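User: Is it possible to get a 3D structure for a protein together with its bound compound? The compound here is pyridoxal-5'-phosphate. I've pasted both below.
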Amino acid sequence: MERSDVVARDKRYVWHPYTAMDEYIARTDPLVVVDAEGPYLRDADGTRYLDANGSWWVSTLGHRHPRLVRALVEQAGRFPHASLAGVTHEPAALLAEELAALAPGAGRADVPEAARLSRVFYSDNGSTAVEVAIKMAAQYWAQNGRPQRTRFITLSGAFHGETIGATSVGGVEVFRDVFGPLLFDVVHVPSPAEPSGWERAFAQVESALREHPDEIAAVIVEPLIQGAAGMQMYAPAFLRAVREATRAVDTFLIADEVFTGLGRTGARFACDLADVVPDLLCLAKALSGGILPFGATLATERIFTGFGGGPERALYYGHSYCGNPLGSAVAREVLAVYRDEDVLGQVARKAPRVRAAFERMAETIPGVTRPRALGMVGAVDLGGGGYLARAGWRVYEAARRRGLYLRPLGDTVYVAPALNIPDAALEELLGGVEESLREVARGSS
Ligand SMILES: *Cc1c(COP(=O)(O)O)cnc(C)c1O
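Assistant: Yes, that's possible. Here is the predicted structure of the complex:
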């Protein structure tokens, strides 16, 4: 089919996510992907694009990694699906064991058995992984002596997904305002990533916990990087302080590592960088390496035990595709590739390049501010008025002319590429971001 025929049908029938559709239909010439490999996407017109964000943060091992494709095909040839209803299978059972062995705190003598993340509940994506965590926390307290604990503390700028529960604990106003009347009540505190530091956010977490210890079911955070808010980064000290404060009143900490998990920040989990073991840990995105949707919520032995003692105490929650064998098999292969290709070691080697490049951009390009980096994530803001005010999309277009797919978050320009991106492609990526910013800063776009 001709490229233009695909675009015509797309514009007639497809409703795109996070997209003002009338503007898209009138003006956007979308990429029409026909092929993808490693860090690259190829358009039907033959142009090759470097994928600066791993296709919305999922392809951490690049596109079409041969080992992941093989794991998918082999499992599909055996059985692509079986429910977890009175049924189990090797991929789901082994993956759960492997995740429990890798989780923050695993195998550490100073972490009591009850506090280990040793139970795995499967779902379909990041939003559901969060939804499960919310329900686990609420039901745990409802049936274990603290029924008033129904409120969650969340951070301003937080993003936890799209379901109504996940939206309720979100803190990005434009995503939640319109649904306001449908959302449950939460305690909002400032973002720890504010330039003035994390202390103000923590003081409010602490006072909410101290004033309402009987009401707070959990504090939910994106550890160290608030991704959707524009790669807002904060100090591990905040996470540690929140962990101590939740312990002090014996309530839960939910770590949403859907974005940060599996090497993005340089550690296996961002929680590891803060030496924190949460009570619930949400995973998706990188977990299935951009091959298919898949999610998991890890819970402590204590939480799991709180659902025993009679059928009326069970967690009545599940999705059709819970523990899907394809997803489980691919996720196991993802973990194996991380091990065999030393993906964390690769990130450690490449991360200083990412940081240095973004620092240089902010130093040398007028209007480019707030350079920040952690692991394979690098970002700057466009500000200070002039040509760069509200110029994220002009940077997108300048980048596209250079063969770079660089989707901004408002006025934040960032990269979050495949963690195994080859060195030459990483140089091409960072150089392309810099040139695109320079071009727009000169006002010559
Ligand atoms: C993307 C994301 C989600 C939602 O995941 P989906 O798979 O898109 O539902 C939740 N939390 C965080 C931190 C995310 O980045």
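The chain has a mean pLDDT of 96. The domain at 31-64+342-443 is CATH 3.90.1150.10 (Aspartate Aminotransferase, domain 1).
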